Amino acid sequence: MNAVDPTLLRARRSWYVYDWANSAFVTTTQTVLFSPYLTVLARRAACPDQPTGCTRDLSVLGLPVAPGSLALYTITVATLLSAVLLPFVGALADRTPHRHRLLGGFAWVGATAATAMVAMGGDRWWLGVLLALVAVVSLTCSLVVNDALLCDVSAPEERDAVSSRGWAAGYLGGFTLLALNLLVVSSPATFGLTDEWAVRVSLASAGLWWGLFTVVPVLGLRRLPPRPVLDLAQTPDQTPDQTPAQARSLTAPFRQLLTTLRGLRHHPQVLRFLLAYLIFNDGIQTVIAASSVYGQEQLGFSSAQLLTTVLLVQAVAFAGALLFGRIAGRLGAQRTILGGLGLWIVVVLGAFGVPRGAFSTWLALAVLIGLVLGGTQALSRSLFSRLVPRGAEAEYFSLYQAGERGTSWLGTLVFGLVAQLSGSYRPALVALLAFFVVGAVLLTRVDVAAGVQQAQRGADPVR
């Protein structure tokens, strides 16, 4: 094996730290505390006289919304906003020599919004919705840049292992902060806090963690050797009769988005993988986003129990991501992902059957989730990185991120609607099985070898 250049190795280690940084927000805020706490605030606003037994709807822009579905709808709106913005972020990231600056800018905007969640309280559900929209959209924008950087810090044959190590670092970071927050939420009086203030301080800590540790990749990735990028005065869609000024015009990002979308026809394996990933990852992300609400509302678990659950998931996921990376080295990423999707089906069926209050059974499922969570996502990222055309990594990863961790839209919408119409989260959970089954079937239709050959030719011109 050829020795890795020391400069590249240091930059790669810095790149790992961004997963460590943003995972604190994903675990403490998105996965555990935000949805249940926003539900409490929404019920308090809808039923100020009796919030614990509230059966009234909340009026949101004139529309009736069940308090228990507000957090899921918030994620849905954030995803739709991301779907509009991310392709332009990808086009910009492919045209700047300063990707690390873009990474830091998006991350610090999101971290500021996440830290400001400490101001949530009373019946200020609207503040939580606004801050979540800013934080989630900023997170997904930063992940477009971060995923594109995977192609800068590793060769194609290294990406399964490098991507898995990044995810493992993320789970370790999420585990570390979540363990600290578990102490705060479990024993708030020890720290001079009320139960509600313990949640608010924990939400703020996730934003601070995200922002502070982002300094490491922003500084460390400056060491990367210069990468060839398109001149900012030129775009791939610039025709011979266009001037550089026209290419730099306000309409250039829109033209480039259309060019990227039309270019997918020259990379059919990318399109097939995106369709499969969008579907099965919607299922994964909805399970993650809805798990805390399901555990609290359907199964009656406390915030401390939910924190313990996610803490266990994070601990197991650290080893699971590395394990799946090794399995992929023998079986290939595609087969390994398919095996992981089979285990996700087992998880959903198992969660449906968990009796109310059966915490030990719930924890057993948490171990299985941790085993497959990081592996399926890390390998999906590395597999996609080998299919995208050279020179357009960020643009294609912007499409990829539309179905990534904080951006499920169809899954959360289906889950929220079924829960609201049925009055129970159990049938809503069963509805998610379709995402894993359909996604797995579509993934089997991806010809990875053909996709790699197409990617090596670069971004074909649209004809």
How would you concisely characterize the structure shown here?
With 463 residues, the chain is mainly α. The chain has 18 helices and 2 strands.
Task: Describe what you observe in this structure.
Keywords: Membrane, Transmembrane, Transmembrane helix, Transport. It is found in: Cell membrane. This is MFS transporter. It is a multi-pass membrane protein. InterPro entries: Atg22-like, ATG22/LtaA_families, MFS_dom, MFS_trans_sf. With 463 residues, the chain is mostly helical. It has one domain: Growth Hormone, Chain: A (Up-down Bundle). The protein is 73% helix and 1% strand. It has 18 helices and 2 strands. It has a two-stranded antiparallel sheet. The radius of gyration is 22 Å and the shape is globular.
Record the SSE blueprint.
Blueprint: H1 6-46, E1 58-60, E2 63-65, H2 70-93, H3 99-115, H4 125-153, H5 159-186, H6 195-213, H7 215-220, H8 244-247, H9 252-263, H10 268-298, H11 303-331, H12 333-352, H13 359-387, H14 393-401, H15 410-422, H16 425-430, H17 433-443, H18 448-456
Antiparallel strand pairs: 1-2
Helix pairs in contact: 1-4, 1-5, 1-6, 1-10, 1-11, 2-4, 2-9, 2-14, 2-15, 3-4, 3-6, 4-14, 5-6, 5-11, 5-13, 10-13, 10-15, 10-17, 11-12, 11-13, 12-13, 12-17
Subcellular location: Cell membrane
Organism: Kineococcus mangrovi
Keywords: Membrane, Transmembrane, Transmembrane helix, Transport
